[in-house]
Amino acid sequence: MRGRLFGIVAVAGLTGVAGFAAAPVDLGGAEWAQKVSLKGDLRYRYETRDEEGKDLRELHRLRARVGVEGKVNDTVKAGVQVSSGSSDPVSSNQTLTDGFSRKNLYIDLAYIDWALLPELSLVGGKIKNPFMSVSDLIWDGDLNPEGLALQARGAREALDLSAGAGYLWVQERSGEDDDTMLYAAQAAVKYNFTDEVYVEAGGGYYGYDEIEGRGLIDFENSNKSYGNSTRKVVSGGTTNVIYDLKYNLVEGFAELGIWAGIPFRAYGHYVVNTEADENDTGYQAGIGIGKAKNPKTYELNYSYYDLEKDAVVGAFTDSDRHGGGTDGRGHKLQAKYQLLKNLQLGLTYFMTEKTISDDAKKHDYDRLQLDLVANF
Ligand SMILES: [Ca+2]
Ligand SMILES: [Ca+2]
């Protein structure tokens, strides 16, 4: 019986092999895998928010992202990514709540990336932030702007050069010249002294067109200005809250990197809104040691920031420190440890002050985040 069964299996196996060899069926799997890459990550977060004058808040949150990028031809790529969260442009967190209800998915990225030249790309759609950043002073890391961007990158001996320009749609409206646009340009140069030491420095300009006097950029529709100055206009029976100022930002940044068995970096970032007369500047300075990448590796980061009320557009800056937006200052301490392959543990603590433009309303805001992040 046993021999017979073995015989049947052996014959079936041989026929299978013979059949495969005689009539190869190409499902295109290998070719497809070369053209399309799929990746995702999932973060489970425990968070506490301790804001002076309010009850301590404790919550668990998820962030799930899945993205696919395909090679369209030799010079064009296209990608789509979906994420958890809400329509919030600066967060894809989903709080665990609402009676185990099913949660929404959103379009997080949808772009075409066309290499016009080996060193020049045109990217269009809902795109990854095209501007390099040594810190999250101006842009939240989750922000994926919309429109068109040019990105140039090149290397000349010890120099790495990068430049970008953006034509970005913030708010489309029906009237002529009524759209809120963001026109931006940035350039940076990195000088590699040796393989172990580099210095990078750069600057950028971000000009918002049609923002002063316009309705607030607020996905929640709750007249939130995320720290920025506002004024009210009454027309008929309704009162609208609008931006009181223009935002034309100039930034400068520099970073020093040293490899001494483990990586070390120190950076500074400065921004000024040239259209505001007061509360118009922001800066952030920080250091980092190590890199949590391979199992049992770690990194430590520390930074201090001071972001005045009208230094940047509050809706797009970091959503975590002092509860998000502008008009805050404080410390950020972070430790990351790579537990296993593709599985990382993170601990972040913000010790900040909120509403710093008004001494009577200024108060403490502390936030703790314990993260478990899986990449696949
Ligand atoms: Ca965020
Ligand atoms: Ca329009």
Structure in words:
With 376 residues, this protein is mostly beta strands. It has helices spanning 2-22, 29-35; strands at 36-51, 57-71, 76-83, 94-95, 106-117, 120-126, 146-156, 159-171, 180-192, 197-209, 230-235, 238-243, 248-260, 262-273, 281-290, 298-307, 328-340, 343-354, 363-375. The strands form 2 sheets. It has a 16-stranded antiparallel beta barrel. A two-stranded antiparallel ribbon has the order 11-12. Strand 13 and strand 14 (262-273) form a beta hairpin. Mean pLDDT is 93; it is low at 1-21. Bound molecules: calcium ion (2 copies). Residues 90-91, 140, 142, 319-320 line the site of one calcium ion.
Short description:
The protein is mainly beta. It is about 5% helix and about 55% strand.
Regions with little confidence, pLDDT below 50 for 5+ residues? 1-21
Oligomer: single chain
**Rg (CA only):** 25 Å
**Percent of residues in helices:** under 10%
Average predicted local confidence, pLDDT: 93
Q: Which structural class fits the helix and strand makeup?
A: mainly beta
Sum up the overall morphology in one term: globular
Task: Profile the largest sheet.
Answer: 16 strands, antiparallel, barrel
What are the secondary-structure elements, in order, as H or E?
Answer: HHEEEEEEEEEEEEEEEEEEE
Bound small-molecule species? calcium ion
- State which percent range the strand residues make up: over 45%
Count of separate DSSP helical elements: 2
Strand order of the largest sheet: 1-2-3-5-6-7-8-9-10-13-14-15-16-17-18-19
